[in-house]
Specification:
four-stranded antiparallel sheet, 9 strands, mainly beta, five-stranded antiparallel sheet
Length: 153
């Protein structure tokens, strides 16, 4: 028969050290997670962005058709010439969506739905996190490009 080990006295230094360590851990967890478990209550990204391209020739106004979400997203991109403020028509709009930290990415062509307004449909954001979308306005060569970041929850 195996003899049971003796339990240290509640007044022993070992017991007191463990009790202090356990109390410190509980206090640290209470500070780190004051709201408890569960999803964060975060306002969804509305998907509206505005920027002038890197070459300064075209203004890119990006608007999501609904708040940014995991899954497929559709964007409307209005292209405007910065010098004349006229719509940039008959351009080839190509968008590159990527989450470089995870190696995810896809390429999407825009369709002109009215003069200077392009629709880029079914852009997949497969997981939560930061996604980069680079938009390029092209004719026979690159005219201008702009990059946007979206926080997907």
């Amino acid at each position: 028969m195996i003899e049971p080990r003796e339990q240290p006295s509640p007044k022993s230094p070992t017991r007191r050290r463990w009790a202090r360590a356990r109390a410190a851990l509980i206090a640290a967890l209470a500070v780190v997670s004051p709201a408890g478990c569960g999803p964060r209550d975060v306002e969804p990204d509305d998907g509206h962005r505005l920027d002038v391209g890197a070459n300064g020739r075209i203004e890119f106004a990006v608007e999501s058709t609904e708040p940014i979400k995991r899954g497929f997203n559709t964007f409307h991109v209005r292209l405007t010439w910065t010098d004349s403020r006229d719509p940039a028509q008959r351009m080839k709009l190509r968008c590159y969506a990527s989450m470089t930290s995870m190696g995810h990415g896809s390429v999407h062509e825009g369709t002109e739905i009215e003069p200077g307004l392009y629709e880029v449909a079914d852009v997949p954001f497969g997981m939560g996190g930061l996604w980069d979308v680079q938009c390029r306005a092209l004719t026979s060569s690159l005219i201008d490009e702009a990059a946007f970041e979206f926080d997907v929850h």
